[in-house]
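Input sequence (181 aa), recorded before submission:
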Amino acid sequence: MNQAAPPTDKPYNPDKPYIPCGPSDMSLYDEAQVRFQFVQKIPVSAEVLFGTFEDPESWPKWAHGIGKVVWTSPKPYRKGTTRTVIFWGGMEVYEDFLVFDPPREMAFIFYGVSQDDVFERFGEHYAVEDHGDGTCTLTWTVAFDPKGGFAKVMWMVKPMMRLNLRSYMWRLARYCRRLPA
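Predicted structure, token format:
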């Protein structure tokens, strides 16, 4: 296992292995080895959508595979905010926000994970265009450099991963339809 010394300036779970991810910035979304981008009209305003993003209870309801989201920085969220996401299988990912500009944009990268041989670098970028009529369009980019065993099977996993991630957008739109305006 490629476990390294955990960070001294960012949260992580000391009861799990800590595997650092490579450094990233906004160029990751253009340069990553694997990149998915989805555009979805969302039936709520950009403000309501960002409220959903800030609500840790909402993520497991529309992003299947996510078991729990824990904001590890206090509000107001901004560049440098951290968050931990715990997946159903127990893997934890530790996120650092590069951008947090409600209701227009947010982007984060993984600074570490609890499972080896998955990601060298990983990030997500959410760009929101508000239409002024109670709807908005979300452009979601997922970008990463796989490593180890995951990199070796990426050719096989990529089509299923694309479909699964696309389904997140459909579930998010369906979830937002049930929200108060």
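Checked by second reader. Residues 78 and 91 are 25 Å apart (CA to CA).
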